[in-house]
Design goal:
2 domains; four-stranded antiparallel sheet; Aspartate Aminotransferase, domain 1; about 40% helix; globular; alpha/beta; Aspartate Aminotransferase, domain 2
Length: about 475
């Protein structure tokens, strides 16, 4: 692609950054699906991509995402310093490896592992990978037990609610495990102890309990599920472990729900996964998986790799990845401490519960949850409101920059359409007041539009 750059008197190229990129490309279109014929100056390439990315939504106004959208500049600086460090090379970057180990120890202590000093766990690219590792360990432990009993190992199943994240569907598909899904019924949107036990059998490798459903922010009753499985084992002799998918809640409950029993305090909990890049307050992507103890992670799943002169253990689906996010996680642990995390998560819950109450006061809505578990809540249109939908309101708010997702619930409750608000670090009372004002404004517009359509239909009917 021909370029024309202003020339200096000595013939060298002098890029005038005050000119828009189009003037430097002589009207040529930038190729999108093929490589350009030649190089672009770095500032021009930057400006072209920067301008295109302006079309993206404002991450701070994205109430759909659980993912962290703000970190302190000091954390960003540390991440910049570590982007070129390959996490897998523990021999070359021993201190980054040490920091990962410290993070695992911190989480093991936070989640009440029996021996946090000998913590068993690792970082991952996100909670999805961490969940799959937890599922793999469950399957392998079940296979060992069945083989020792001389029984077949070809039909494993995993019990969970239909509200699980898609990573569990991937796990079941990729590793040939039957998903035994508990559907939603009436006003029950999550897994219950009774429904979990009904689906267990000798081929059940485990039960997945979610600490913070993405549909409505509610916690599943982990303690009740464990108690029911204790009774089930007493009645049948079948020992079914529990994996807690704490993608969001594992970084919330320890700080604002200290009396809630959901972690390794419950002997039946074998493993826990969490997203560092959600309520762990780190930019994407980092996740964590921690096991109760070394016995919960079958040894053959750990690979010892001779890499760049050292023999090192690895247990992950990914191999090479930057150390930046792990270092940023440790920064948060060091910077905030327990009290800082409690303050951040407590404020998020305060904003969520207040915002839920203000939305309820508007009139046309009914709350499904109130933000008093995860700082997340869902609401639907009240009965009798049929002249617009939650999808209409979601689309209308986009004009003001808000991303407030509307969605239907899964099987057995596909009749239910709702809006969901995720309150995370950076969503303040002031910001939530702006959201309320914009919802009021858009509701008034939707009411007027509906009235106009109704008037037009009546007029047409009269003339006919």
């Amino acid at each position: 692609m021909p370029l024309k750059h202003p020339q200096t008197s000595n013939g060298s190229t002098n890029v005038n950054l005050s000119l828009p990129p189009v003037s430097m490309l002589e009207g040529e279109r930038v190729p999108r699906h093929t490589l350009p014929k030649g190089e672009l100056p770095p500032d021009v390439a930057y400006q072209i991509i920067h301008d295109e990315l302006m079309i993206d939504g404002n991450a701070r106004l994205n109430l759909a995402t659980f993912v962290t959208t703000w970190m302190e500049p000091q954390a960003r600086s540390l991440m910049d310093e570590c982007l070129d460090k390959n996490m897998i090379d523990k021999d070359e970057y021993p201190q980054t490896a040490e920091i990962e180990t410290r993070c695992v120890n911190i989480l093991s202590t936070l989640w009440h592992a029996p021996d946090a000093v000998q913590a068993t766990g690792c970082s991952t690219t996100g909670s999805s990978e961490a969940a799959m590792l937890g599922g793999l360990a469950l399957k392998r432990r079940w296979q060992h037990k069945r083989e020792a009993q001389g029984k077949p190992t070809d039909k494993p199943n995993l019990v969970m609610g239909i509200n699980v994240q898609v990573c569990w569907e991937k796990f079941a598909n990729y590793w040939d495990v039957e998903m035994r899904l508990v559907p939603m019924e009436g006003d029950r949107f999550t897994l219950s102890a009774e429904e979990a036990v009904k689906r267990c059998g000798e081929n059940t490798i485990g039960v997945v309990a979610i600490l913070g459903s993405t549909f409505d922010g509610s916690y599943e009753p982990v303690e009740e599920i464990c108690a029911a499985l204790d009774q089930y084992e007493s009645d049948t002799g079948i020992d079914v472990p529990v994996h807690v998918d704490g993608a969001s809640g594992a970084f919330v409950a320890p700080f604002v729900d200290p009396d809630l029993k959901w972690d390794f305090q419950l002997p039946r909990v074998a493993s826990i996964n969490a997203s560092g890049h959600k309520y762990g307050l780190v930019y994407p992507g980092v996740g964590w998986v921690v096991w109760r103890d070394a016995d919960a992670l079958p040894e053959e799943l750990i690979f010892w790799v001779n890499y760049l002169g050292d023999n090192m253990p690895t247990f992950a689906l990914n191999f090479s990845r930057p150390g930046a996010q792990v270092v940023a996680q440790y920064y948060n642990f060091l910077r905030l401490g327990f009290g800082g995390y409690a303050a951040v998560q407590g404020y998020a819950r305060e904003v969520a519960t207040r915002l839920a109450g203000e939305i309820e006061k508007l009139g046309p809505f009914e709350l499904l949850t109130r933000g008093d578990a995860l700082p997340v809540f869902a609401f639907k249109l009240a009965d009798g409101i049929d002249h617009y939908t939650v999808f209409d309101l979601s689309n209308a708010l986009r004009a003001r920059g808000w991303q407030l997702p509307a969605y239907t619930f899964p099987k057995n409750r596909t009749d239910l359409a709702a809006l969901r608000v995720v309150v995370r670090r950076g969503v303040t009372h002031d910001l939530s007041d702006l959201l309320i004002s914009d919802i009021k404004r858009e509701l008034a517009v939707l009411d007027k539009q509906s009235a106009a359509v109704h008037t037009s239909e009546n007029s047409t009917s009269f003339h006919h």
